Amino acid sequence: MHPGNKGYLMRLLPFCLSAFILAGCGTQKEEIEYTTGVWDEDSLGYHRVVIENKSRADAVYVDVPWRRRDNEPWNKAVILTGSDPEKVIDNIICLSSDNEKGRFIFQPVYGPGKYYLYYLPAKMKGRSNYPTVTYPPPRQTADNAWIELHNLNDSAHVRSLPVAQATVIQSRNKFNSFFPMEITASEEEVNRLLGKYPAKTFLLFPEERSHPIRMKEYLPLRWIEEGPFGPVEGEARRGEFFTFQVGLYCIGEDIDNLEILFSDLKTGRKKTVIHHDSISSFNTSGIDWDGKIIAKKLSIPKNRIQPMWFGFMIPENTKARKISGHMVIKAGGHEAETLKINIKILKDTIANHGDDNPYLMSRMRWLDSRLALDNEVTDPFIPVEKENRSLKILGRQIDIGTNGLPSRYLTYFNSSNTAIRDNPENVLASPVTFDIYRANGSKIFFVSEEPAFEKDGSGKYNWETKNVSSSLEMKTEGSLEFDGFAQIRISVMATEDIDLSDIRLSMHVRKKFAPYFMGLGLRGGQRPYYISWKWDRMKHQEGAWIGDVNGGLQFSLRDDNYERPLNTNFYREKPLIMPEAWFNKGKGGINISSGEHATDIYCYSGSRSLKTGDELVFTVNFLFTPFKLIATDKQWRTRFYHRYKDLDSIKNYGANVVNVHHATEINPWINYPFLEQEKMKNYIDKAHSMGMRVKIYNTIRELSNRAPELFAIRSLGHEIFSPGPGGGFNWLQEHLADDYIPAWFVPDNRDAAIINSGMSRWHNYYIEGVNWLAENMGIDGLYLDDIAFDRTTMKRLRKVLDRNRDSALIDLHSANQYNVRDGYTNSANLYMEHFPYVDRLWFGEYFDPDLPPDFWLIEMSGIPFGLMGEMLQDGGNQYKGLVYGMTSRAPWSGDPRNIWDVFDEFGMTGSEFIGYWSEDCPVTTGYRNAPATVYLKDNKVMIAIASWYDENKELWLNIDWSKIGMNRNESVLRAPYIRNFQAEKIYSPWERIPLEAGKGVVLIIED
User: Fold this and answer.
1) Quick check: 7 pLDDT over 70?
2) Quick one: which of 879, 880, 905 has its CA closest to 980?
3) Residue 156's pLDDT band (boundaries 50, 70, 90)?
4) What is the chain's percent helix, strand, coil content, to nearest 5?
C-alpha cells in the first residue's frame, strides 16, 4: 500500500548508507501511545513525537515510527526541543525519512529526559480568511564541530550511538489527531496481509461509524490488526437510523462496476425486522436534490480504498433483540464477497431517530430526503388559476400562445409596487416568438396544436404543445409556478436534412416597461439604446432582466446540461457549461435595440445544418417581476442586530431581531450549526421570552471541517464537494490531503471550510437540517451569506421555516459579484430566482454608494422585485438610503438608531411609501440625481431627498398638494433634528431647499 520508502540522507553524510547505520543501531520495539498535548501550534505545528532519552551521551540515535499519510515527508522540516518549546535544539541530523518512519541523530542538550520532535511545522501567509500554508523544507542546522566531535561521518561510530526511544505521538488536540484512522500500515505489514489472500480481488473492512474512514491511499494500521471480512456489528436503539461503513480495498485491478446486495435482517426465529429494500446504500443510490432517484456507478482504482456508507431504520415498535443477515458485494466477473451483519437492538427508544447527536451519523439519511419537495403555495402567494390559456398568479397574468410561449404578460402592481390594481397593463408589446429561418433567410411557418394544460399541485401548471412544418417538428413543454417562475423547453427535430440561417427567441417589451436593464455585462440601471452580447464561458452571464418597478422579466438561456456554477470568488473553478443549442460553437448571442414603441430582444443562435433525426434543445427560464408587494410596515418594524451579543444589551439598543453569525459561541462552525445545541437553545429561548427573534447564519457554499459527516461525504466523490488543488489551512492539508477547494477560514477558532459543488444531495441534508433547527432550537429564520443552491431548494427552505415558525425571516447578503473572479455577474440577477422567498436584502460589500440612483434602485434596493433592503459598504449613505427606505445594519455597518428614531417620531407604520420612480410620486426636485421619496400619512408627510451630485444644489420642490391632501398656504416644511444627520430648520413652501453634495435632507409637512 505504501508507495515505496523514500529514505535519503542529509548532504552532510553523503557516504553514509542509512541501511548500514540502522543495522548498527539495532531495531526498536514499537510501543507508541497516542495522546494530546499543549504547545504553540502556530510556530511548531500540530503534531509531535515524545522521545525518552536515558543516556547522558552528547549524541543519540532515535527511530521515529510516525506512520504518516502526508505527501513527501522527507521534504518537510522538523523541529526538536526539550521541555521548553521556545528553545530549539539545532544539533539534529535526519538520516532518512519516509511515510513509515524517520531516523535521527540528535544532541540531548538537557541530558536524560523527554525531548519533543515537531514533525509538521508550517508557515501561514496570505489573507487571514484565505490563508496559504506551506511546510518548510529541511535544512542543515547541526553544527559541523559537533558532527566532527562525535565522528558522525564515520558509520562505525554511528552504529555505536546510544538509542533513545519514541514513546508517544501527540497532536495538539483530539480534533487534530491522526489516531486511529490515519495511522498508516507499513509496506511490509500490507504485503504480509495481502499474502494471506492471494486470490482476492478486493478486501472488505467493516468499520465502526464512530471512526469514519479517512484515507484512500493507505491502509490504517487498525485494519491490519483486525483483519478483513469481519462481521458488521453494532448496537442500535429502537427508532434509530443505524449507520455503518465498509471499506473496500481494491487489490488486483480496477473495479468498474460494484454491485451491493443485502438480505433481510431477521431475528433468531427468522422474523424479518429490516427488509433488504429498506437498507440505504449512499454511495450507489439515493434521491437527488430535485426528488429524482439516482443510481451511481461506483468505480475503484487499483490500490485504493473506497469507503461505503449504509443505513437502515430500526422500527420503534420492535423488541429488544438481535437481528442478523448478510451483505454481498460483487465486482464485475470477480468472486463475490459476503459479510455477516449482526445488530443488537437495545430496549431504549431514541428521539428523532438519533438526529440530535450528529456523531451517530443518523443524519446521513437526510441526503435522500424529499422534505417540502412539493408544489404547494407559500405566503404571500396565491394558487395558480387557469382560465383558457391565461394563468393568473399574485399580481400577474401570463397568457400562453399556441407556440407554448407567453403571448401576454399583464401586471396588476401599481407603479410603487405597494398595491395591486384592478386594471392591468401589458408588459409585452407583442407575443414572444421562437423563429427558425432557412439558409436563404425565409422564415419557416409551423402548424400549431392547442396547448394541453395540466395542474401540478396548487402552485404549478404545466403545458405542452406541438408545432409541425414540412422539415421540422417542434415540441414546447412549459410550466409556470406561483412565484412567477416559468421554464420553457423547446426541442427541435429535423424530419429531413436542412440548412438554417438562424434559430432565435424574440421578445418585445413595451417602452413604458423597459427603462431599466441589468445583465449581459452591464450594471443595473438605465437601459442603453443598443446592446450586443456574445457567449463567454469565463463570464457568468446567460441572460438579463429588463423592466420597471411594477413590471419586468428576466430571461435565462439554458439547456438540459445546465449545472449551477460556483459563485462568490469561485466561479472560475466551475464556470457555466455553454448551452449547446444557444451557443452553437460561438455563433449565438443576444442583440437588444430600442424602437419607437418597444425594446426588441433577439436571442439568436446562428447558422447550422441539421441531418434527419438531429435534435436541438433550447431552454429559456422566465421570471416575471415583481414577485410580491414590498412589505413596508415589516421594513419599519423589523430591526436587525447583526452580531451575537448579550440579549439585554441588544434589546436596549432598540433591535428586535438578532442575526447570529458563524464563529460565535452558539454557532461556531460555518454552515454546521448543530454542535452547540444547549447554548443555542438557551439563547433563543431567552430571546423569545423577551419578545425578540433569533436568526442564524447557515447556508450552502462551503462546509466546516468540523462536520462529523465530512469524511462520509468525501466518500461520495465529487458529488457534494468540488474537486480542486487542495491547500489552505494545516488541518485540511494534513487530513484531507488533496482534491478539494479551500474556502473560508476563521483564525480565532481555526474553522476551516471547503467548497461545496453546485447542486447535490447536500441540499436535501440542508433542508432537513433547517427543519431540525426550527423544530428543536426554535430559530426564527436564516441569514444567507450568498446562495449556492437553486430556487427548488429555496422554496423548500421557505416552506420548512414557515411550517415550523410564525413570522420566519430570511435575509440575503451578497458582496457585489460584478468582478472578474465572479464572471461579471450581478448579484440581483444571480439570485433573482430566490427573491420570492426572501424578506430582506443586504447588498453588500463593493456596492459603491456613489453609483447613480438607478443603480441603487435596480441592484441594491430590491424594490422592483418586491423586497426592501439595508446598506453595507462603508456603512452606506443614510441620506441616499432613506430614498429607498433603507438603513445601515446595526452594528455591523453603522448605527441606524438616529433613523429608527425618525421612523418612530413620524409613525412610519401604516404610511404609504411613494418613491421617485412612481408615477404617483407627489414631490419632484427637478434634478435627476437628487430624487425625492415620499412617506405619506393621513395628516402628515415625510420627504426624503438625497444628492448624488459632487456640488451643492438648491432645490425648488414641486409638490402636488392635492395628492398629499394638504394646503400649501397653511403648511411649512420642517427639517427635524436628526442626530449625526441634520440640524432642525423650518422652510416655507416657496423657499429653496439647500442640498449638500452627497448628502440630503428629511422634511416633514404636517397640518
Assistant:
1) no
2) 879
3) confident
4) 20, 35, 45
Residue type, 356: D
Q: Is 450 exposed, middle or buried (0-12, 13-18, 19+ CB in 10 A)?
A: exposed
The grid coordinates of residue 407 equal 403571448
Q: Is residue 462 part of a domain?
A: yes
Task: For 391-419, give the DSSP string.
Answer: EEETTEEEEE-TTSSEEEEEEEE-TTSSS
pTM for the predicted model, two decimal places: 0.95
User: At 934, which amino acid appears?
Assistant: V
Q: Which of helix, strand or coil describes residue 660?
A: strand
Mean pLDDT across the stretch 887-914?
A: 97
User: Which is nearest to 434 in space by CA: 519, 492, 485?
Assistant: 492
**340 and 435 share a domain?**
no
Whole-angstrom distance, CA of residue 805 vs CA of residue 277: 35
The reply to whether 596 and 473 lie within a common domain is: yes
CATH number of residue 239's parent domain: 2.60.40.10
Residue type, 176: N
Q: How far apart are CA 571 and CA 587, in angstroms?
A: 24
Q: What is the pLDDT of residues 724-742, one digit of tens each?
A: 999 999 999 999 999 999 9
Phi first, then psi, for residue 572 (nearest 5°) are: -70, -20
**Same domain, yes or no: 166 and 228:** no
Please name the amino acid found at residue 819: N
Asked if 687 and 681 count as a contact pair (C-beta separation under 8 A), the reply is no
Summarize pLDDT for 510-553 with one digit per residue, the tens.
Answer: 999 999 999 999 999 999 999 999 999 999 999 999 999 999 99
User: Looking at residue 28, what is its pLDDT?
Assistant: 53
Q: What is the pLDDT at residue 279?
A: 99
Q: Is the pLDDT of residue 14 over 60?
A: no
| pLDDT > 70: percent of the chain | 97
Quick check: 391 and 405 in contact, CB under 8 A? no
Amino acid occupying residue 313 = M
Q: Is residue 650 part of a domain?
A: no
Domain-embedded: residue 65: yes
